[in-house]
Amino acid sequence: MAESSNYQQIQRRAWTIMIAALVTFCVLVISIPLGINWFLHNSETTQETSVTLISGTVFLTPPGAQRPEGVVETVPGIAEGSKIENDPGSQAAVSFYAPDKTTALGSLQIYGGSSIDLSLMRSPRFEWSDRPHRMAINMQRGRARVSLAVDVNRQIVILLKTPHGEVLLERSGSYSIEVTPHTTEVVVRDGAATVTGAGESVILAAGERTTVCAGCKPAGVLTGERNLVVNGDFASPLSPADWSPYKDRYDPTDVEGQIEMTVDAGRKAVHFIRPGSNWGRVGIQQKINRDVRDYQSLRLHLAVRLVRQNLSICGTYGSECPLMVKIEYTDLAGNKNEWLQGFYYYSDPASPLPTLCVTCAPPKTNHVRVQHSVWYPYDIDLLALFNSANRAPAVINTISIYAEGHSFESLVSEIELLAGD
User: What is the pLDDT of residues 269-292, one digit of tens each?
Assistant: First the structure.
């Protein structure tokens, strides 16, 4: 009997071990592929992020640092948790790239008196993951323009938190965010945004805006500024319905120059190229023909990048810049006027030249010196400028963007002529 009982115990123990082994085997067979699949689909790595000084004074505080450091030119390899602050009148640009360091994901143009924290910049580690590129930004104060890149084969998501609410961006486009002590204002230039405050959300489309204060619901969908320029983001090819290309040159045998559509650092842009020996000009023009007398504001915004120029500043008379914008308008007295703004990066100290157009009539503004080959956002209040010269606008007739000189290469994007009630 004792032997029979021992045999049964051994048999039960054997069966227990076999069943446990079978269960363990089944668990491993199921869990290991599931674990590998989860890792492949959910594993993330940090993005390549840099900050570039555009003008003024900008400070970067890496995570764990006791004091900020000044930004000189471009600082690569920005870590999560870094803080960026700038003085009034200063500008900086934050660029987000996928881990491959070649795929542009978006940019953050930071204007004066701003303070932001880069909380999170993550992308999927493996191509077959269906997770998006993610960025989380805390913005305490100031103004910024956020751009989400186009033609990226994976969704890009930016969550921007302010003291008053949250802004979720999930579509390529251009967005303006301004944080004051009392409110956050969100304007959608192109794309769509979800603004949340006090547990409620509103969805904004292109040309719409809203405001939100601490503990308040968003103010609803408000009418944004009207963009008088058609296809200023170059989402569509150039056509007679919007932009008309033009070219001119002194020597018919010299290089004519090219005007191309391109995508640069995630931006759709127009590319001007001319490796010439004598004077030449290439550009695009759009007829606006809009009465602006009832508008309370009229602002111009565009982004420029200068790659090459051979003339110092903008030439002898200040009229040959590697990129220029010209607005032709009729004032309240019925007179025809034009305003010219140039951009350059190269200045030869041995031969000082004028920094504005010598032959142009008022109103005049100094040409803007920008960093070589860095995207530069430009904004100006045209209504205030034209009024200061006692030439208040009645009708905006045309806007022209062009490059002029001998040898040059430049790009332009985000052309907006924003009229507000």
Answer: 999 999 999 999 999 999 999 989
